[in-house]
Amino acid sequence: MEELHEEKQGKAKKERTPMPEQPAEERIKNFSEVALGYSKEDALAEASRCLSCKDPKCVEGCPVNVDIPGFIKLVSEENFEEAIEKIKATNTLPAICGRVCPQETQCEALCVLGKKGQPVAIGRLERFCADYEREKGVKDPEAMTPTGKKVAVVGSGPAGLTAAADLAKLGHKVTIFESLHKAGGVLSYGIPEFRLPKEIVRQELEYIKKLGVEVKPNYIIGRIKTLDELCDDFDAVFLGTGAGLPNFMGIEGENLNGVYSANEFLTRVNLMKAYDPEYDTMVRHGKHVLVVGGGNVAMDAARSALRLGAEEVSIVYRRGEDEMPARREEIEHAKEEGIIFRLLTNPVHILGDEKFNVTGVECIKMELGEADKSGRRSPVPVEGSEFLVPADVVVIAIGTSPNPIIFKGSEGLEQNKRGTVVADEETGATSKCGVFAGGDVVTGAATVISAMGAGKKSAKAIDEYLKEK
Amino acid sequence: MAYKILEKEEIAPSVHRMIIDAPDIAKAAKAGQFIILRIDERGERVPLTIADFEKETGKVAIIFQEMGKSTKQLAKLSAGDFLEDFVGPLGNPADVRKLGTVILVGGGVGVAPIYPQAKAYRSAGNKVISIIGARNKDLLLLEEEMREASSELYIATDDGSKGQHGFVTDILKKILDSGEKVARVVIVGPPIMMKVGTGVASPYDVEIIVSLNSIMVDGTGMCGGCRVMVDGETKFTCIDGPEFDARKVDFVQLMNRLAMYRGEEAKAVEKYEEECRCGLH
C-alpha cells in the first residue's frame, strides 16, 4: 500500500501544472495578456511537486537569490501572504520576474526534478504569489530611518529600479532620473502588453515610490545635467541606463520607409500605444512583416505585428532554433500564433519601390560552420541560395548598444570598445569615484533579471561605500 | 509631470509662439538644440527646435506652424494650460565659434531656429548676415528680432510682397558672389530649401551646415527613426546631429523619410477637424 502510494505521488510529480492561456486564435486579435496565471488549485498542485531540497540548486540559478523552496513551501501551506514576503525579501519586482525571467536557463534549469522530468514551474508560482498580493492590496512598506545620504539613479529600467528600491530600504534618499515620459525602461517601452501588462509595471513602480524613491521623468542626464554635476549633487550615483541604441545590419535598403528598429516599432506600439485608435501614435500596419533576429525582442516584435493585423509574419534568423536566445515559451507562443520561422536565413538586401517604401527582402540560406569563440557554430552563407521574401514592414531586432548621451560632458568614466561601461562584476564600481553601474550598460543587451541582479549587488556596494564615506 | 504654458501668441497666420515654464531646460539649453513635447497622455511626441530661452526666468520658447493633428491641437491651447511632457534640451548644440563672417539662412518656420543661432554667433564675435524668407509678407517671422540679432538682414518673399521678390537662396548666391569673405553658411528650413541652398553654396569655398528635422520618437538615440545618410553612413539626427555638413547629406533620402506617414497624417487631420466641427474638442 505504502509503495503504491509513493508511486502514485511520484507520477503526479512528473507532470507540471499547465499555465492557463488565451487560445492562440483568440489572442492574436488582442493585446491582452497571453498567460492568464495559475488558480489557487493550480498553484497548490504545482507547489506540492517541490522536493524542498536541503541544498537547493535552484536558488543558485537565481540572480537575486530568491529563497525558492522557502516560498514554495509557504504556497503549499496556503500561506500566500508570507510566501510573497519571502520573495520580496530579495526580489523587488516579483510580478514582473514571474512573467519575463528566462527561468528555463536559470532557477528551473537547476531544479532536481528537471533531471528526469519537468522542473517545478518556479516562475509561474512566483507570478501567482505576486498577483495574489496585488489583488489583495499591497501593504505599504514600513518607514525607514533616514541615513541622510542622497543617491542618484540614472535610468528607471530593471537595474535602476532594483538598486533604487534596495537603497531606499536602507534609508538612503534616492532620486531616479528617467529620459522618457514614463518610468520602467524596457518594461514600459519594450516588452509588450500581452506579455507584461503595463498596469503591473505601474503598480510595481507605485510600490517603489512608496519606499520614498522620487522619480523624475523627462530628465536626461548628459543633457540637462552632466554626470559630473550629478556627482556634485549626490553622495553616490548608480548608472542603469541600459543598452538603448539599436543596431542595424548595414545592408542596402535599411533606411527605406517601413524598416524599423525593434526599439522604434515596440516603443510606438507599447509605450505610445499605436494599437489603440484613441492614441495619436503612428506605425505602419504591415500585411507582410519580416522580423530579423532570434531573441525575445524579435518574438515580441513579430507577435505585436500579428496583433496589429498582419496577414503573414516571419522571423528570419541566421542560426538554427536551438541557438535562438529567446525564452522557450516565447518561441512556442510565437509558433502557436502562426509566426513563420525562417531559420538559417540571413537578409542581404532590402528592396523598395519608387516611393521609397519597402517591398521585400532578399535573403540567403545559411549553414552552420565551425564553432566560434562563444562556442556557438557560426553560420556561413550558402552560395547561390538567395531568395526573395515580400514584405511591407521590416523590423530589425539584432541587438542594441549603450547610449552615448550619458558620457557627454563627463570625465573619468572608463568604457570599453563596445561602448559599455567598465564596472566591477561584484560591486558595479566604475573608474569614477562614487559612480556605480549595472545592467545592460555594463554587459550589453541581456535580461531583466540579470540587470536586477546587478542593481542589487550595486545597492549593497553603494551602501558600504556611503558608510565609509 | 505638467509644464505650464506662460504665453501664447499667433505671430503669423497659423504660426504660433509659445513660452513654456521649463527651468531645467532653460538652464541647460544652447542654440541649435530642440525639445520634444507631448500634449496629453494620448499624444504623439513632437520634436520642435528651441526658438529662444532665458536661463534666469526659466522660460523656453517654441514656434510651430499648424500642420498635422498634433500642431493643430497644440494651437488650441492657451496661456495657463499645461503640456503633459516637455523634454530637452535634445541634440548637440550648434557649433558656434568665432569664425569671421557667418551667413544664416532661414525659410518659413525655419526662421525660428536660426534666431537663437544669430544671437549666439553674434555674441561669439562674428559678423552675422541673416537671410530670411517666406511665401509672403504675412508669413514672414521674427523680422524685428532678426534685425536686432544680425549685423545685416536680407528678406525675400516668393510673391515679392516684402524684400526681394524671389528666394532666400537667390540672395545667398548674390552675397557669395560679391566677394565678401564668408566662413560659414547655416541653412535651416524645409528640406527642399536646404537642398537648393546647399547646391547654391557648394561651389564656393565656404563651410555649409544644415540642421535637420527628421521624424523621431524619443530624441535620445533609442528609436533610430531619425536615421539619415551622411557621407554614405547612417547617422541619427538626434544624437549625431541635428547639424550636419550639408555637402554630405543625402537630401533625397531625408525628404523621402519625412514623407513616411504623410497619408496617415492627412487622415488624422481630417478626423480631428471633423471632431472639432462636431464640438468634441
Throw out a few tags for this protein.
heterodimer, A: 469 residues, alpha/beta, 5-stranded parallel β-sheet, 17 helices, 16 strands, 34% helix, globular, disordered N terminus, B: 281 residues, Elongation Factor Tu (Ef-tu), domain 3, Rossmann fold, 3 domains, 7-stranded antiparallel β-sheet, 7-stranded mixed β-sheet
The residue ranges of chain A in which pLDDT falls below 50 over 5 or more consecutive positions are 1-12
Query: Major beta sheet of chain A, specifics?
Result: 5 strands, parallel
Number of strands of chain B: 16
Give the largest interface.
A-B, 38 and 41 residues
Oligomer: heterodimer
Gyration radius of chain A (Cα, Å) is 23 Å
The fraction of residues assigned to DSSP E strands of chain B is 25-35%
CATH architecture field of the largest domain in chain B: 3-Layer(aba) Sandwich
Number of helices of chain A: 17
Give your account of this protein's structure.
The complex is a heterodimer of chains A (469) and B (281). Chain A has 469 residues and is an alpha/beta fold. Chain A has 17 helices and 16 strands. Chain A has helices at residues 2-14, 24-27, 40-47, 57-60, 68-76, 80-88, 94-100, 122-136, 158-169, 186-189, 198-210, 227-233, 262-271, 296-307, 328-336, 440-443, 448-468; strands at residues 150-154, 173-177, 214-216, 236-239, 245-246, 259-261, 288-292, 312-316, 340-342, 345-352, 358-371, 377-381, 387-390, 393-396, 400-401, 435-437. The termini of chain A are far apart. Chain B has 3 domains: 3-90, Elongation Factor Tu (Ef-tu), domain 3 (Beta Barrel); 101-211, 3-Layer(aba) Sandwich (Rossmann fold), CATH 3.40.50; 216-239 and 248-281, no CATH class. In chain B, 29% of the residues lie in helices and 32% in strands. Chain B is built from 9 helices and 16 strands. Chain B has helices at residues 23-28, 69-75, 111-123, 143-149, 168-177, 191-201, 237-240, 251-258, 262-277; strands spanning 3-12, 15-21, 34-38, 46-54, 59-65, 82-83, 85-90, 101-107, 127-134, 152-157, 164-165, 184-188, 207-211, 227-230, 233-236, 243-245. Chain B has a 7-stranded antiparallel beta sheet, sandwiched between helices. In chain B, strands 11-10-9-8-12-13-16 form a 7-stranded mixed beta sheet, sandwiched between helices. In chain B, strands 14-15 form a two-stranded antiparallel sheet. The longest helix of chain B has 16 residues, at 262-277. The radius of gyration of chain B is 18 Å and the shape is globular. The chains are: A alpha/beta (469), B alpha/beta (281).
